[in-house]
Amino acid sequence: MAAKTAVEGIEVSIGISEAVGLADADVIAAYPITPQTHIVEHLAEMVAEGELDAEFIPVESEHSAMSACLGSSAAGARTFTATAGQGLELMHEVLYVASSMQLPIVMAVANRALSSPLSVWGDHSDMMSVRDTGWIQIVVENGQEAVDNIICSFRIAEDKRVLLPVMMHVDGFYLTHVIEPIALPDRELVKKFLPPNRFPLPLNPDHPVTMGDFAPPVVYTEAKWAQEVNLRNSQKIIEEVWGEFHKVFGRKYSPVEKYRTDNARVLLFTMGSFSETAMEAVDKMQGEGRDIGLVRLRLWRPFPFAEFREAVKDADVLIVLDRAISFGGPGGAVCSEIKAALYDEPRKPKIVSIIGGLGGRDITVAGFEEIIERGIQVAATGSKNEYEIYGVRE
Amino acid sequence: MAKPENELTWEDIDIGAIVTEPGSARAYRTGFWRSQRPTYDFRKCIKCGICAMYCPEGCIGQNKEAFFEADLYWCKGCGVCARECPTRVISMVEEEE
Fold first, then answer.
1. Which of A101, A214, A216 is opposite residue B16, by nearest beta carbon?
2. What is the pLDDT, as a whole number, of residue A383?
3. Of A37, A288, A303, B49, which alpha carbon lies 20 to 30 A from A242's?
């Protein structure tokens, strides 16, 4: 029997902070940056007011934020941070250290465009720049998912069979700054769902260990392969945790989520908050008798190859929306991966790469309809470009 | 370490490549990096130990006659000892010779 809790109107950033509080985090080290600011401001307030018994480390940069997180997580503390855009770029090198040292840090990324020109608004440029850092990466599309996945992320990260940092991507402004109906999970149930963090080899003067040691060529390849196998294997535990979350709290998450895809010959593929607008476009077009469906990716790393191939196997056309440019490359980064994932399939859809929604540019329901129509046209006639850019003024 | 490094498989790598036993750096043979080797004229040696103090690798100890000498398992051949020796005991020679 799933637990019922009251639904309230909460700003998504505040909901994320409250979820970190429900998870009873021990250490938060963060530097404020738009549009992540409300998350860490509220956490600082919760700690100052004594609502959350944690250390809040106000660091001088994001590089220091992630470095402080390494230390606290290595000491066995449940550790949280959040950042966005340029801040994620500044912590870049330390991200690799966190995943390689298998430290179960949880981070919310309020996705933001990258400078220059300066933009505080949302797109997925920051998310794509950290694709290969070895973190588990979950992409949420509304406030409730953000709250739920903070709690799931700690459980996934700290599982003895995983021990990896988890990044939760939440669209900056589109989600972080909106008030949504959110049910905050019951504190006692969260406590039962999320056992205390027990990092197996913590920093401890009585049992000294060496972390982040030097690896000569004779052993580096073995260390990297061990890391890769562990990340790939984490998918079954992620699904197990989501399954358990469903049993306790009644809300279900999957690596790949389908929306009205039965008998749909044309599929649109999205990630993040734009998916909900895309659903409205799909509803409208199906209402007009069109065979259009939607596939959304919830789990970006490890990439759920089998579930993805299964979700798109009957489609004739697959239109992939990327919200970041891979400059000088073959198209959107997500679409490139999708093309690679389907290349060896005996039957595969025509794949069309469309990039849009950059730096806070909205895509409306009508916009998604245009994208789908354009995608169908490109699938039939081909394009003179490697990809299509949506909404650019000519 | 339980196994020498060149026999470790990926499954032998501990969580996060954390090293749980002390002494792994001691097993690492930095002497392979060397292109020059120190040679000694111990007749000039006054056993002051300045070479050992300056050695960045910490690989210089006293031999049976109490002269200071580098352990070639770790000596990288940097030549700092030859430069610092006040009585010019040490000369660096090419490894090929």
1. A101
2. 87
3. A37
What's residue B2's pLDDT?
Answer: 64
pLDDT digits (tens, 9 = 90+) for B34-73: 999 999 999 999 999 999 999 999 999 999 999 999 999 9
**Global confidence as pTM:** 0.93
> How many whole angstroms separate alpha carbon A69 and alpha carbon A67?
5
For residue A205, cis peptide bond before it (omega within 30 degrees of 0): no
CATH fold of A7-249: Rossmann fold (3.40.50)
SS3 per-residue string spanning A248-290: HHCCCCCCEEEECCCCCCEEEEECCCHHHHHHHHHHHHHHCCC
Does A35 sit behind a cis peptide bond, omega within 30 degrees of 0 on the bond before it? yes
Which whole number is the average pLDDT over A291-317? 98
Q: Do B19 and A103 touch (CB under 8 A)?
A: no
Given CB atoms, is A233 within the 8 Å cutoff of chain B? no
Spatial neighbors of A221 by CB under 8 A, at least 6 apart, are: B10
pLDDT, one tens digit per residue, over A163-205 is: 999 999 999 999 999 999 999 999 999 999 999 999 999 999 9
pLDDT computed for residue B23 by the predictor: 83
Cα(B56)–Cα(A34) distance, integer angstroms: 46
Q: What is the pLDDT of residue A1?
A: 46
> SS3 of B30, please?
helix
Task: For chain A, give the mean pLDDT.
Answer: 96
Q: Which of A129, A230, A111 is nearest to A170 (CA)?
A: A111
Q: Is A210 on the interface with B (CB under 8 A)?
A: yes
Q: Give the CATH number, domain containing residue B88.
A: 3.30.70.20
Task: Give the architecture-level CATH label for domain A257-389.
Answer: 3-Layer(aba) Sandwich (3.40)
If you compute the radius of gyration of chain B from its CA atoms, what whole number of angstroms results?
Answer: 17
Please say whether the beta carbons of A296 and A271 come within 8 A. yes
Residue numbers in A near B30 (CB within 8 A): none
A213 to B13: CB separation less than 8 angstroms, yes or no: no
Total domains in chain B come to 1
| A162 CB within 8 Å of a chain B CB | no
